[in-house]
Amino acid sequence: MDLTGKVAIVTGSGRGLGLAYARELAAAGAKVVVNDVDAATAEAAAKEITDAGGTAVAEVAAVGRTEAAEALVARAVDEFGRLDVLVTNAGVLRDKVLWKMSDDDFDTVIDVHLRGTFTCARAAVRRMREQGEGGRLILIGSPAGQRGNFGQTNYSAAKAGIVGFARTWAMELERANITVNAVIPVAATAMTETIPALKPYVDALRAGEPMPPFARTALAFGTPEDAAGLVAFLASDAASGVTGQAIGIGGDRLSLWSHPQQVVAAYADGGWRPGAIAEAWPTTVGAQLQTVGENLPEPPAA
């Protein structure tokens, strides 16, 4: 996968998945703007990439504000002369159940994930359209945005909105040859260790133990590096015809998420009154109610 001559911004790339994406893009030949809210973390990530033979600079910014987005794009252009790829990975967690979630808990997560994706994409697209050579927006989603997750009102809503961005922007940017896709990763990070079913695998990985086959296949759970190949693919010319999609990656599994669609419909002449709905519900629409949340399989017995 050759990305020589391409310039990429990866938000929230000081550690975890974001750093894995930045390393993979740089290894493929792209010049990368690394971003983190912490200066030491951002500089360390950029140094790691350059020490490995890649090209990277650090830009410290708290993603969310328009000024931060414009600063990231300006850094890419000032350092490398152009912008071809944006990966919107920056994120935070403020997990609480609905009745305990504060306005600040909600706003902080929405500002970084949802508003940050919007402001960074807007700034990047303005530059890409000015260049007139197309581009790539790679928006990082989550299974929580696809299925919901207990205690993640803010995060689930933001990640669902990000996939909505991908579908809408894919249509708006088609004529400019800018593709837009959402990546739905699952990997051992500080975020996933908060999920009880996954924490033992995160702990094992940190202890230097190999990820068991059950985790890599049935749970699609692996390392951040396992998810990075998809980002490099989507940034490449090989993915020029892929847009508007939500693509899952994790462990040994690559998958495609469906767009929401009607699964069943019922009709009544003149429309539906409450009593008619109640009578028809059990055998029509109500017979195919959808589940919520991630239904993770149980590990095999030892």
TrEMBL record:
The keyword ATP-binding does not apply. The keyword Oxidoreductase applies. SUPFAM superfamilies: NAD(P)-binding Rossmann-fold domains. Residues 6-194 form the Ketoreductase domain. Keywords: Oxidoreductase. InterPro entries: KR_dom, NAD(P)-bd_dom_sf, Peroxisomal_Beta-Oxidation, Sc_DH/Rdtase_CS, SDR_fam. Belongs to the short-chain dehydrogenases/reductases (SDR) family. This is SDR family oxidoreductase. It comes from Amycolatopsis acididurans.
